[in-house]
Design brief:
single chain; GMP Synthetase, Chain A, domain 3; alpha+beta
C-alpha cells in the first residue's frame, strides 16, 4: 500500500469516528463504538471500515445496521469535509480483534495466577560445548 493510501485511510478513520460520535443521532449507536481500521481499494473508490462495538451480539448487530444505514450520510458529509477527488463508497464490518485480544489476556492472567506445575527440568540433557551449525564454518 502506498503512503498516500495510508494517509487517506487514517484521515477517513478519523473523520468517520468524529461523524459517528457527534453527527449521527441513531438510538442503535448508544454503545461504545470505535473505528479500528479503514482499508481503501487501490483506486480509492471503495473502503472497508472495521468497527469495534462493545456489547453482546445483538448490540453489535444493531450498531452495525445503524452505521450501515447512515453510510450515504457519512459519504456525503465526508465529501464536504475532505478534499478528495473521489470519496469512497463505505462498507462496514465488525472487528472482533479487541474481544479476541481480551480473551487471550484473560487466559494469560489465569495462567499467571494459577500456573501449572512445570516438568522436572533437572533430568533433561544439557550441552555445554561450542555452538556450531551444520554447513557453516
Amino acid at each position: 500500500m502506498t503512503r498516500r493510501a495510508d494517509r487517506i485511510n487514517g484521515l477517513l478513520r478519523q473523520e468517520i469516528s468524529h461523524l459517528l460520535s457527534r453527527e449521527i443521532k441513531d438510538p442503535r449507536l448508544n454503545g461504545i463504538i470505535s473505528i479500528t481500521e479503514v482499508q481503501t481499494s487501490s483506486d480509492l473508490r471503495n473502503a472497508r471500515v472495521f468497527v469495534s462495538v462493545l456489547g453482546d451480539k445483538d448490540t453489535k448487530d444493531a450498531a452495525l445496521d445503524g452505521i450501515q444505514s447512515a453510510a450515504s450520510f457519512l459519504r456525503r458529509s465526508l465529501r464536504d469535509r475532505l478534499k478528495l477527488r473521489y470519496v469512497p463508497f463505505l462498507k462496514f464490518a465488525l472487528d472482533e480483534s479487541i474481544e479476541d485480544a481480551d480473551a487471550v489476556l484473560r487466559v494469560i492472567d489465569q495462567l499467571r495466577d494459577d500456573p501449572a506445575p512445570l516438568p522436572n527440568t533437572e533430568s533433561l540433557p544439557t550441552y555445554s560445548g561450542p555452538l556450531s551449525f551444520p554447513g557453516r564454518r
